């Protein structure tokens, strides 16, 4: 397997893979009843007008695309952090980055007045924190 040497490509790739792992955990958490709302529904809630539209196939697709795009952007930041600060304590740095990045993104998407799909229960928000931690670890 060829090693990725370009930092931007590495950031986009790591962000995409981390985002897919995050969304997989989110789907599992939703399926088990830990979370009441999928992350893609919350992300789609920023861009569509109703809760019903977020639960359609197109709403999920829109939310997934937006979530993965933000994860790829976060991957750039994570690669830059590890480049500047070094890779020692990589698990702690990844976990901290993922949780902080997830908190910022969740806060921003939930803080928009137009978002009618923001989660209001503790379990969903804790599930988002755990999913963001997994994103940071990957």
Average of per-residue pLDDT values = 85
Q: Assembly type of the shown chains?
A: single chain
Give the overall form.
globular
What is the end-to-end distance?
18 Å
Radius of gyration over all CA atoms, rounded: 15 Å
> For the report, how would you describe the main beta sheet?
none
- SSE succession: HHHHHH
How many helix segments?
6
Structural class: mainly alpha
Q: State the low-pLDDT regions, or none.
A: none
Q: Count the E strands.
A: 0
Q: What fraction of residues sit in β-strands? A: under 5%
In percent, how helical is the residue content? Answer: over 70%
Topology record:
Elements: H1 7-31, H2 39-44, H3 51-54, H4 57-85, H5 90-111, H6 122-137
What keywords describe this structure?
single chain, 138 residues, mainly alpha, 74% helix, 0% strand, globular
Brief characterization of the structure:
By secondary structure, this protein is mainly alpha-helical. It is 74% helix and 0% strand.
Write up this protein:
With 138 residues, this protein is an all-alpha fold. The chain is globular. The chain contains six helices and no strands.
């Amino acid at each position: 397997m060829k090693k990725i040497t370009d930092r931007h490509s590495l950031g986009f790739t790591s962000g995409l893979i981390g985002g897919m792992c995050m969304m997989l955990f989110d789907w599992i958490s939703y399926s088990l009843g830990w979370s009441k709302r999928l992350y893609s529904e919350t992300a789609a809630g920023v861009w569509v007008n109703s809760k019903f539209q977020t639960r359609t196939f197109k709403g999920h697709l829109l939310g997934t695309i937006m979530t993965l795009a933000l994860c790829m952007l976060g991957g750039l930041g994570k690669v830059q952090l590890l480049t500047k600060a070094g890779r020692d304590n990589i698990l702690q740095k990844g976990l901290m980055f993922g949780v902080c990045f997830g908190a910022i993104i969740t806060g921003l998407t939930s803080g928009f007045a137009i978002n009618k799909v923001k989660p209001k229960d503790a379990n969903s928000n804790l599930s988002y924190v755990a999913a963001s931690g997994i994103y940071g670890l990957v």
